[in-house]
Structure prediction request, 339 residues.
Amino acid sequence: MLRYWLIICFLWVFTSSVAQVGGQRSYEFMNIPYTPGTVGLGGVNVSLANQDVNLVISNPALASDTLSGLVSFNYLSWFADASSVATVYQHDFGKWGNWFFGVNHVTYGSFDGFDASGAPTGEFDAGETMVTVGRSHRVAGFSIGGSIKYVHSDIAGFISSALAVDIGGAFIHPNQQFSAGLVFKNIGFVISDYSDAERSELPFDVQVGATYKPRYMPFRFTFTGYNLYQGDIAYFDPDNAASGEEEPGTLDKVFRHFTIGTELIISENVNFRAGYNHLVRQELKLEDTGGGAGFSFGVMFRIKAFEFAYSRGGYHAAGGSNSFSLTADTNMFLKRRAL
Prediction:
């Protein structure tokens, strides 16, 4: 464990001097939290083990025997006409191990098009799709996993595609309800760009997190760090200093790399979720009111072979996202058929 956390600290120190201005990368839809488990716990999670099959997309090392046979269908209602539909399934192939498969399609709706002179060119659609395949291998309390992702983007007929991999690790304590995860996300290259003039980049990220449930408490806590390969990710325009806007302080900048999530575990089949994302809060709140930006909440309950979940993520005073999922345990159906 000491060596594990030393590596994490080294990565933080080594990459803290690297910064990147927002809006310079493509395929940012890959970072949209589209499942209730992720949305409800602050938007990022790489350490909640043996709980949610959807989280194998966040960290492939979280794929385990307990998740095999689970299939989940997700729907995210975002802003305006933007929405996401996704499914995740994990299967045990015996000696070939446990493999998971995922498909996520994001549609942004229809738009009115105009040429350079302002003349209308008619409506156009925009959408992006990600297909994921991966597996993990576990030895004692440690697990390592990897996934490969094919990404396709179509915006008004301009098409781009890319190939990326995620490499993750996880530690699951054998006696305590503690788990930790580390993942390097979206390492890859662009296969074909929107045009010859474009130089699209994948949204690479380094994420680390820990989840812990005290033995005699009905709460489970999750802390996750993301954008760790960047140093200062706070946006500040020096031209606005004259109007009284203050540059974010050091502590504020540090907290923008972290999310906090809490679960109230009523029983094995019911729990409530709440989360806080400081980056979303600081970047999207209004000057005179926060409007719930950065805060999220959700609920999960199981009925026999089915699990239902809902979460709402707060982004702005004008609204937020609503995420729904239905997860089914196909093992129960197969057992009944065998009987």
